[in-house]
Amino acid sequence: MVLKSIGVLSAAKIVGVMYAVMGLIMGLIFAAMFSMIPAMAPTGDAQIPSWIAPMFGLGSIVIMPIMYGIMGFIGGAIGAVIYNVLAGAIGGLELHLEPGTRP
Questions:
Q1: pTM value?
Q2: Strand partners, 94
């Protein structure tokens, strides 16, 4: 069997969702890091405003999945188009499949 083409919208959707999940994970990591800012803030005249850590923490949980998802969608669509062009020119991926049983 040879994979001749990939559905552009199908690939874009799945890659976009995968990247959005990765963005959520990264957003949670960033939120955890930003939650430590108040504990590490210097005392005295050069204090960090108290609203900085929650803004960046919550912002990273909301913004990063959206941005990662959009970039994944666009990247998945571009990747599928490139694959389809190259598969048409030089042939697609050769797949060796075996019948299997489901658990």
A1: 0.76
A2: 2
